[in-house]
Write a structure and sequence with these properties.
The structure holds 2 protein chains of 2 kinds.
Chain A lengths: L13 H8 L3 H24 L3 H17 L1 H14 L3 E5 L2 H14 L4 E4 L3 H6 L1 H7 L3 E4 L2 H8 L16 H12 L8 H18 L2 E4 L3 E3 L4 E6 L3 H7 L3 E7 L3 E2 L5 H12 L7 E6 L9 E7 L3 H5 L15 H5 L3 H4 L10 H11 L17 H5 L6 H18 L3 H13 L2 H14 L4 E2 L2 E2 L7 H4 L12 H18 L1
Parallel strand pairs in A: 1-10, 2-3, 2-4, 4-7, 5-8, 7-10
Antiparallel strand pairs in A: 5-6, 6-9, 11-12
Helix pairs in contact in A: 3-12, 9-10, 16-18
Chain B lengths: L2 H21 L22 H14 L3 E5 L4 H11 L4 E4 L13 E4 L5 H6 L2 E5 L2 E3 L4 E5 L10 E7 L3 E2 L2 H8 L7 E4 L4 E2 L7 E2 L6 E7 L2
Parallel strand pairs in B: 1-12, 2-3, 2-4, 4-7, 5-8, 7-12
Antiparallel strand pairs in B: 5-6, 6-9, 10-11
Classes of the chains: A alpha/beta, B alpha/beta.
C-alpha cells in the first residue's frame, strides 16, 4: 500500500513552516478576519438550536455504531447502490483510486471533468493524475477555483481560499480568465466565476464529486453545498463519479435529520446551507445515466484499528475546530503541510500515514480544548493529540537518537537526590557563558530549541535544597542554644 | 479474480480485524439502538410555524408572497409581471389550472438543457418545507430548478413542518428519489466571508405560500 495525503509526506515540520508563515501579516489578517466572522455566526445559530447537545450525543453514537459495524454497512450500501443502477469500486490507497477514476473517464471518452469541492480528491492527488493522463479537471467551487487558478494550495477544509482577500482574488481572476476589467467587489468576482463556468457545466460530459454521506439503507449519496456548482456537476453530465472515504457511510436516510442539523450550523454558521442534493444510483431520464462510487481506504482502516484514536473517523469535515483553534488562527492552514489542517488535520494526517510522516502535527496545539467543545460529533481531539504524542515518543525511543539518550540520562539524574544536586552545581558553574543581563537567551545544541522561543532565568547561586539544609541546621543550632 | 475484488476483500478484512481488536476495549460501540433525545416534533402552533418559515425565507433574501388556492394563478401572474417575464418553464406535474393566461408555458419534459439555460424562469411545487431552517424540499425537477435565473416555488401551508426530523419522516416514502433541499437562492461566502447571493444556481428565489 502506498498511502498519500496530498503532498504532506514531503512537507516541512509544522514548527518550521509556521515560523515563516507567521511573518506574512496579510495572510494572518485574512485568516483572522475569516475565522472571526465564521465563529461569530456559528455561535448565534448554535445557541438558537436548543437541543444542540442532544444532537451531538446522538451523532457521536451513530458514528460509533457505524464504525463498529463498518463492514456490514459498506456491504449494505454497495448492494443497495448497485440495485439502483450504480457501480461500486473499492480502492485500498490513493494510487488505486486514481487509477480507477482515470480509467473510468477514459472508458467514457472524457477529456475534461467538472469537479465539485472534495477534500478527498486533494488527498489522493487526483488532479495531478488527471493532468498526467491528458484529462483537464475544472474545479467549480468558487474557493477551489481561486486555489486552482492561483496555483495555490487549500488552507481550510470548508473555505479553501480563506487566506486570500478580495484584491488577491481579483488579480488571479484577471490573469487566469484573461479579463481586462474587474472590480474587487465580491459580487463582481462571483459573477465572473458564474460566467466562466456556465459553459463548462453545459458542455462537459463527466462530473466528479465527493460525498458528505453515503446511506447504507438506500444506497443513496448526499452532497451538501452552497453555490449550486454541486447541483450542476451532479445533474448535468452524462457520467458521474463519486469518491468517498469508507467512513462516510451512515446507517440510514433517517440519520440525515441529525447530521443535516449539525453540519451547516457548525461549518458556515447557517441554519441550513443553500443546497443539499440526494440521489440513489441512476434515475431514468433525470441526471447522469452512468454512476460510479469509489470507496477509499487510504489508511482509514489503520485509524480504525487504534481504539484510542478511532473517533478521528467520526469527523464530518465542518471545519469548526479550525476556526476556533488559537494555533490555526495564527498560522493559517498551510503550516500544517497537509490538505487537512487545524486540530482535525493534526490528528488525521499523521494517522493516515501510520505516524511515519507528519510527526510534528500532534504538537501543533496548545491542548486548550476549544476544538473538542465545538466539535459537532464530539471528537475529543486533545485526548487523541496526547495519545498520538505518546506514539511519536515511543517510536522515537525505540531507535538510538540523541534526544532519547538525553531523556534517559535526565531520568537517571532526576531519580536520585544526590545526582540531582550534583547536576545543579555543575549547571550553575557551566552556565556562565550563556547568562547575560540576568537571563539565559541562547543555549547550545539541542537545548537551543527551548531558548529559540523563550528566555529563562539562570540557575540560582544557591539551590532550594542547599538553602533548606542550611536553614534547618541554623534552626537546630538555635534550639540547642536556647 | 479482478483487482477490484481483491481490494474489496482486503479493505473488508482490515475493517474486521480492526474491529475485533478494538471491540475488546471500552471504546467499542455499545448497542444497535441509538438514543435520540433531540427534538423530534414541534411544540409550536400553526401560525407561529408559518411565521418562522416566512421570516427565515426573508433572511435568505427570498421574495415571498401569500395566496389562497383561488388566487394562486393571479399571484403567479403578479410575480411574473413584476419580474418582466413573458415565458416560463413549468415542472411536469404542476397543475395546469394554476397557470395564469397571457404567458408562454413550456413543460420541463419538452425543454432541452440549452433552453433551460436561457429561460427567464422556472415554476415548480415542492414536497415538504421546514420552518426551522427555511428549507424547501423538491422531488425531481433537478435541472428545471437549477438552470434558469429565477425560480418560483409554490408551497402549500400543509406542506410546511417545523422541525427537520418531521420533514425527514414525511420524505421516508420518497427516500430513493432524487431530492433537493433548497434554503434560499444559491450563495457563497468564499471571498472574505461576505455572503453573495447567486453563484451558479438561480440568483432569485420567489416563493408563494398558499394558505389552506
Amino acid at each position: 500500500m502506498n498511502i498519500r495525503v496530498g503532498e504532506a509526506a514531503e512537507a516541512p515540520s509544522f514548527q518550521k513552516a509556521a515560523f515563516t508563515l507567521l511573518d506574512d501579516t496579510q495572510l494572518r489578517k485574512n485568516v483572522r478576519h475569516a475565522t472571526d466572522v465564521i465563529t461569530g455566526k456559528r455561535a448565534i445559530v448554535v445557541k438558537e438550536q436548543q437541543d444542540w447537545q442532544q444532537l451531538r450525543s446522538t451523532a457521536s453514537a451513530i458514528k460509533q455504531n457505524t464504525l463498529a459495524y463498518l463492514d456490514e454497512y459498506l456491504l449494505k450500501f454497495e448492494a443497495a447502490c448497485t440495485a439502483a443502477g450504480g457501480h461500486v469500486h473499492w480502492a485500498s490507497d490513493a494510487d488505486e483510486a486514481n487509477r480507477i477514476i482515470v480509467d473510468l473517464v477514459k472508458q467514457y471518452g472524457g477529456k475534461e471533468v467538472i469537479k465539485v469541492k472534495t477534500m478527498t480528491s486533494d488527498e489522493i492527488g487526483l488532479n495531478k493524475a488527471f493532468e498526467a493522463n491528458g484529462i483537464i479537471p475544472h474545479e467549480t467551487d468558487l474557493a477551489d477555483m481561486i486555489v486552482q487558478l492561483g496555483h495555490d494550495k487549500p488552507s481550510h477544509i470548508v473555505a479553501p481560499a480563506l487566506h486570500k482577500n478580495r484584491q488577491q482574488v481579483r488579480e488571479i481572476f484577471m490573469r487566469e480568465m484573461g479579463l481586462s476589467e474587474l472590480t474587487d467587489e465580491p459580487q463582481d468576482l462571483t459573477n465572473a466565476a458564474r460566467r466562466y463556468l456556465r459553459e463548462k457545466f453545459l458542455k462537459v460530459k463527466i462530473g466528479f464529486s465527493g460525498a458528505n454521506y453515503l446511506l447504507a439503507d438506500t444506497g443513496g449519496v448526499c452532497v451538501v453545498e452552497s453555490e449550486g456548482n454541486g447541483r450542476m456537476c451532479l445533474t448535468l453530465p452524462d457520467v458521474l463519479i463519486t469518491l468517498a472515504g469508507i467512513e462516510k457511510v451512515i446507517p440510514s436516510f433517517r440519520d440525515l435529520e441529525v447530521f443535516l442539523q449539525l453540519l451547516p450550523r457548525s461549518a458556515t454558521g447557517e441554519r441550513m446551507n443553500p443546497y443539499n442534493s440526494l440521489w440513489t444510483g441512476v434515475h431514468k431520464g433525470d441526471g447522469p445515466q452512468h454512476f460510479h462510487v469509489v470507496l477509499l481506504d487510504n489508511g482509514r482502516t489503520r485509524i480504525l484499528a487504534d481504539p484510542e484514536a478511532r473517533q478521528t473517523l467520526h469527523c464530518i469535515r465542518c471545519g469548526a475546530c479550525l476556526n476556533t483553534c488559537p494555533v490555526y488562527r495564527q498560522t493559517g492552514g498551510h503550516a500544517y503541510g497537509s490538505i487537512y489542517s487545524g486540530p482535525i488535520g493534526a490528528i488525521v494526517t499523521p494517522q493516515l500515514f501510520d505516524m511515519q510522516h507528519s510527526q510534528s502535527l500532534p504538537y501543533a496545539s496548545s491542548l486548550c480544548g476549544a476544538c473538542y467543545e465545538v466539535c459537532p460529533v464530539k471528537i475529543n481531539i486533545p485526548e487523541v493529540l496526547i495519545h498520538l504524542r505518546g506514539r511519536v515518543v515511543r517510536e522515537q525511543q525505540s531507535g538510538a537518537n540523541l534526544e532519547g539518550i538525553g531523556m534517559k540520562a535526565m531520568a537517571r539524574i532526576f531519580s536520585s537526590g544526590r545526582r540531582f544536586e550534583a547536576a545543579q552545581r555543575l549547571g550553575h558553574i557551566g552556565q556562565w557563558p550563556f547568562v547575560s543581563g540576568g537571563w539565559v537567551k541562547h543555549l547550545p545544541g539541542m537545548l537551543g530549541n527551548w531558548t529559540a522561543v523563550r528566555d529563562m532565568r539562570p540557575l540560582p547561586k544557591q539551590s532550594f535544597r542547599s538553602w533548606w539544609r542550611e536553614h534547618e541546621k541554623a534552626k537546630k543550632k538555635e534550639n540547642a542554644d536556647a | 479474480m479482478p483487482e477490484a475484488m481483491t481490494s474489496r476483500e482486503a479493505i473488508l478484512n482490515r475493517i474486521r480485524t480492526a474491529n475485533t481488536t478494538a471491540k475488546t476495549t471500552a471504546h467499542a460501540a455499545e448497542s444497535q439502538t441509538i438514543d435520540r433525545a433531540y427534538q423530534q416534533v414541534t411544540t409550536l402552533d400553526r401560525e407561529t410555524i408559518l411565521k418562522i418559515f416566512l421570516d427565515h425565507l426573508h433572511e435568505y433574501d427570498a421574495h415571498v408572497l401569500e395566496a389562497k388556492p383561488d388566487t394562486l394563478a393571479a399571484t403567479i401572474a403578479e410575480v411574473l409581471k413584476s419580474n418582466n417575464q413573458k415565458s416560463v418553464i413549468v415542472a411536469n406535474n404542476f397543475p395546469e389550472e394554476n397557470l395564469p393566461a397571457g404567458f408562454m408555458w413550456q413543460r420541463e419534459s419538452q425543454s432541452t438543457k440549452d433552453q433551460l439555460n436561457i429561460a427567464a424562469g422556472a415554476i415548480s411545487g415542492c414536497e415538504v418545507a421546514i420552518a426551522h431552517t427555511g428549507t424547501i424540499i423538491l422531488r425531481s425537477a433537478r435541472q428545471l430548478t437549477l438552470l434558469p435565473d429565477r425560480f418560483l416555488c409554490i408551497v402549500y401551508e400543509h406542506q410546511i413542518v417545523d422541525t427537520v426530523p418531521e420533514a425527514i419522516a414525511r420524505l421516508e416514502q420518497y427516500k430513493t428519489e432524487p431530492l433537493t433541499f433548497v434554503s434560499g437562492p444559491s450563495a457563497t461566502a468564499d471571498i472574505e466571508m461576505t455572503r453573495i447571493r447567486g453563484v451558479h444556481g438561480p440568483r432569485f428565489l420567489d416563493v408563494i405560500v398558499v394558505r389552506d
